[in-house]
Structure formats: structure tokens, C-alpha cells
Specification:
Number of domains: 2
Protein name: DNA repair protein SWI5 homolog
Helix content: over 70%
Keywords: DNA damage, DNA repair
Family: Belongs to the SWI5/SAE3 family.
Shape: flat
Function: Component of the SWI5-SFR1 complex, a complex required for double-strand break repair via homologous recombination.
Length: 105
């Protein structure tokens, strides 16, 4: 009785359900590729239209870079305000008022 295995035999040949799911996966991937190509074409048209209106990709990239820098500085400022509030035992809202900052900023 030694060496008996209680699990069932698993054939290396794929069953039709596995093949079907592979075919469905391929169809889904093809559909996703087609959708992405359509989105790419739409974005290319939008870029061309914006270029015709006088917008420039380099200018947009510069604005995005500046926005990233602004957000990093703002996050750092908020972190410092939070630490200062903890040290003083007040809320950050109190510090906003003290330093003349707008809560919406």
C-alpha cells in the first residue's frame, strides 16, 4: 500500500473548457487592443487640434512639471504645518489663520 496517491489523475491534455477560456482571453485582448488604438487615434486628433489652436506640447510639459513642483512644495508645507501644530498643541486650521493662509489652498 505504500506509495499510493489519493489524488486523481490529471491529464496533460487540455480540456475543451481551458481551450475555450484561452480563446476568450485572446478575443478579450484583441478587443482591448482595438479600443486602445481607437483611443490613441482620438488623442492624436485632439493633439493636432490643440496644436492648430496654438498650444504646444513642450509648453504643456513645462506646465505639468511646474505643477508637480508646486504640489511637492505644497505637500512639504502642509507636513511642516502639521508638525508645528502638534508641537504647539493646536490644529492646522489654527495655524492657517495665524499665518494668513486660505484653507482652500
Amino acid at each position: 500500500m505504500r506509495g499510493r496517491c489519493h489524488s486523481g489523475f490529471k491529464s496533460p491534455v487540455q480540456s475543451p473548457s481551458v481551450t475555450k477560456s484561452n480563446e476568450e482571453s485572446k478575443e478579450n485582448l484583441q478587443r482591448e487592443i482595438s479600443e486602445l488604438k481607437l483611443k490613441e487615434a482620438a488623442l492624436d486628433m485632439e493633439i493636432e487640434q490643440l496644436g492648430g489652436e496654438g498650444y504646444c506640447i513642450e509648453e504643456l510639459e513645462q506646465h505639468i512639471s511646474l505643477l508637480h513642483e508646486y504640489n511637492e512644495l505644497k505637500d512639504t508645507g502642509q507636513m511642516l504645518l502639521g508638525r508645528l501644530a502638534v508641537l504647539r498643541g493646536v490644529t492646522t486650521k489654527d495655524l492657517y489663520a495665524e499665518f494668513g493662509l486660505d484653507l482652500e489652498d
